[in-house]
Write a structure and sequence with these properties.
35% of the residues lie in helices and 22% in strands. By secondary structure, the protein is of the alpha+beta class. The protein has three domains: 109 residues, Rossmann fold, CATH 3.40.50.20; 172 residues, ATP-grasp fold, B domain (D-amino Acid Aminotransferase, Chain A, domain 1), CATH 3.30.470.20; 59 residues, 2-Layer Sandwich (Dna Ligase, domain 1), CATH 3.30.1490. It has a five-stranded antiparallel β-sheet with strand order 11-10-9-12-13. Strands 3-2-1-4 form a four-stranded parallel β-sheet. A four-stranded antiparallel β-sheet has the order 5-8-6-7, with helices on one face. The chain is globular, with a radius of gyration of 21 Å. It starts with a helix and ends in a 9-residue tail after the last helix. Bound molecules: adenosine-5'-triphosphate and magnesium ion (MG). Magnesium ion binds next to loops.
Length: 361
């Protein structure tokens, strides 16, 4: 377990005037690097050889460290190199995709922007649900066993990234039929039935608000809102219903991109309160709460109820729609503010005030 004392020791050896912002070369790295450069930081990119074109065409990385695999981040020599470069790491979706929560909290001896302890709350569906419920958010109902299904549910498989293999069912019969088909196709095993998370399907449109919890300003800001462009679910509507039935399509949610959203203004007060409440609850669970970006995954129904089905306590790729600006960042900061830059600004202000350690928990 990496403690505040460990981080303080590492920071003690840093040349803070030469602080660099580093991250893995994927997900939202361009967003992070652009923001870092605009706030005057050097940038360090840990990158796979085949992706270097990205940083040639968009020259935002001052240092490229080539790796075969992102798990090399656990390599002590690589960590030493990052420390020599005075790097603060900005975690994004690829960190949790390639490394386990334990590896991130116990084996990554490089200062990381954010609250490592919250990773445990986020990693597990049950504890995440508890956190969001206690924050007063409305969550889709969950069903203990398939036999309780009395409405449309989404069946989520454990560890299925990007909703791959999720399926819908509206009764115990339809659940077992579809589950049986998945087993036949080798996608699931009989014994997986108990591991499937059954969640009420919230019928509505997806809205993903991205917030920034500032420890330095003691405030939660709404910076951008997006929705996802998912294959194949966003394509199914292009096929006439007759053909849909014939080919028996199931929605899959492989993310291809994101669209910016501007919300109906009357929804904003509730979204703003939700952000505050989630951070306040996090502060109780794992002080000082959320440090930096977080995103709620929500569905808004036709009676304007907001259902939250997930949280990411880090920068999400959806904030890439705001690179340059988003209406909400604009309303608060004027032009040219976005998540990557907001992170860099927080680090800059923390450094100026001698409070860096508070944002590298
Ligand atoms: N309760 C729900 N009601 C309606 N739609 C849902 C619900 N839960 C999930 N979805 C849909 O399924 C998609 C994938 O779900 P979810 O976000 O849980 O998967 P995931 O594995 O966490 O993916 P990612 O890590 O990319 O967020 C969502 O983008 C959303 O469109
Ligand atoms: Mg999700």
């Amino acid at each position: 377990m990496i403690t505040g004392k460990d981080i303080a020791e590492i920071l003690g050896k840093y040349n803070l005037d030469k602080l660099a912002i580093g991250t893995l070369g994927s997900h939202s790295s361009l967003n992070i690097f652009k923001g870092a450069k605009e706030e005057g930081f050097r940038t360090v990119c840990i990158c796979k050889e085949q992706d270097t074109i990205l940083y040639k065409k968009f020259p935002l990385a001052d240092e490229l460290i080539i790796v075969k695999d992102f798990t090399e981040l656990l390599n002590p020599a690589l960590q030493e190199k990052l420390r020599i470069l005075n790097t603060v790491l900005i975690p994004h979706g690829s960190f949790t995709a390639y490394l386990s929560t334990e590896q991130l909290t116990d084996s990554l001896y490089v200062p990381m922007f954010g609250n490592r302890q919250l990773l445990h709350w986020e990693a597990n569906r049950k504890s995440q649900e508890e956190w969001l419920r206690q924050a007063g958010l409305r969550l889709p109902e969950t069903f203990k066993t398939p036999d309780d299904i009395d409405r449309l549910v989404i069946a989520k498989l454990p560890g299925a990234k990007g909703g791959r293999g999720y399926f819908l069912a509206n009764s115990p019969e339809s659940f077992y039929k579809k589950f049986g088909e998945m087993v036949k196709r080798g996608l699931l095993r009989e014994e997986d039935v108990g591991k499937i998370h059954l969640q009420e399907y919230a019928l509505g449109v997806n809205v993903y608000p991205s917030y920034f919890s500032s420890i330095i300003k003691d405030d939660v800001e709404l910076l951008a809102v997006d929705r996802r462009y998912e294959s194949a679910v966003d394509a199914i509507g292009k096929i006439p219903a007759g053909e849909q039935l014939e080919i028996d399509v199931n929605p899959t949610y492989t993310i291809v991109g994101n669209f910016p959203i501007v919300l109906r203004e009357s929804l904003l007060p509730e979204f703003l309160r939700m952000g505050e409440n989630v951070h306040r609850k996090a502060r109780e669970l794992a002080p000082p709460g959320i440090i930096g970006p977080f995103c709620l995954e929500t569905v808004v129904t036709d009676d304007l109820k907001i259902y939250t089905f997930e949280i990411s306590a880090r920068i999400v790729a959806g904030t890439n729609v705001g690179i340059g600006t988003s209406p909400y960042a604009y309303l608060r900061y004027g032009p040219n503010m976005y998540m990557g830059r907001r992170i860099a600004l927080e680090l800059k202000e923390a450094r100026e005030q001698g409070r860096l350690q508070e944002v590298l928990a």
